[in-house]
What does this fold into?
Amino acid sequence: MSGTAEFLVIGGGIAGASVASALAAHGRTIVLEAEERPALHSTGRSAAFYAAGYGNEAIRALTTAGEGFFYAPPDGFTDAPLIRRRDWIFVAREDQLPALADLRQSLGGGVTCVTGQAVESRLPILRLGYVTAALVDSRGGDLDVDALFQAYVRSLRKRDGMLVCNARVTALAHQHGRWRATTAAGEFSAPVVVNAAGAWADEIAALAGLGPIGIEAKRRTAILVDVPGHSATADWPLIMDVDEEFYFKPDAGRILISPADETPSEPCDAQPDEIDVAYAVDKFERATTVQVRRVSHKWAGLRVFAPDRSPVAGFDPRTDGFFWLAGQGGYGVQTAPGLSQFAATAITARTPSPGFETLRELGSALSPARFLTV
It folds into this structure.
C-alpha cells in the first residue's frame, strides 16, 4: 500500500484520531497506526472521566474548552451521548486539610466545600470519620470513550481520510518539501506530519532526525472489584484523595479503583504490577468499610508526560512540517476536542472553530520550542 496526502498523522489513539478528523476538512489525511487496531494503549485503558478541575492550568483550559462539545456534539457527529454527569469529590483527612485549602484556591470557582459527614451521606461505604472535609466539583461526568473515538474515525473517513493499521513507521525522511514515511504497510507521504505517537513520540522524532524533547511514559494501574450488599452504585460520585493517592468510581455495577501510580516505563504494552494492585486494594479498604474479596479485572495503561506536564502541540522549529501532538499526561480523552481544534488551527492557519477561540492564547505554553535551544 502507498498513499499521498496533505497530512500524515502518526498514531491512532484519541489524539491522532481527533486531529485527523479536524484536518480532513482541509485536505486528504492519513493516520498510520502501528498496532493491529487503533486505541490499543492509553486511549483504550482510560478511566473515562471528564474533570474540569483536573490537571495544570493548560490542561484545565483545554478541558473546559471542550465541555460544550461533549454535551452537545456537532450535528451528525454521533448518535450516542458522550457524557453522563457524575460529581467529582476531592476528599481530605484531617492531616490533608492544608492540601485541600491549596486546591480550593487553585481551582477558584466551580467547587463547593463540604463536610466529611456530607460526603458520607452520599457514599455509604465510606469509613466513618475517614473524610474530614471535601471539595465537590459538579462539572464532571463519565465519558463514552469508544463512542467518541469511533465518531472521530467515522468523521475522518467521511472526509475521504484513511486509518491504516499495522503501519508501524520504520523510517521518516523529509525530501523535496514532503515527509515520506516507510511503514510495514507501505510508503506514505505528505507536506505535514503530525507526531501523535504517544509514548513513542520521541522515537518518531528520532526517525525524523530530531532530538528528543523528554517525553516520558508512566504506568498507571486500575482494578475492578465488587461491592457486596450495595447494588445501587450507579449514581455514586467519583472519589479522589486530595493528594491523589488513590481514586475510585462506579463502573458498570462494580467499582473501579486506582492507586494513582506513576511508575516510569519504557514505551510498551503496559501490564499491571501485583504490588500496585495490592496498593489499590489497601487504599480502598482503608477509606471504606468494604473488604475486597476478589479483583475481577486489572489492567494498566501509560500516561505520557512532557517535562513540565503540559501537552506539546506545535511545529518543531528545527525542521519544516513536523508537528508535535504529545504529552497529554493521561488527560488525552477529556482534552481531545480542545487540543485537536488547537492543533488543527495551528497546522492549517485557519480561524478557530466557535467556542475554541481562546485556545490561541496557549500557543507558547504548548509549543515544543519551550524545550529546545535551536
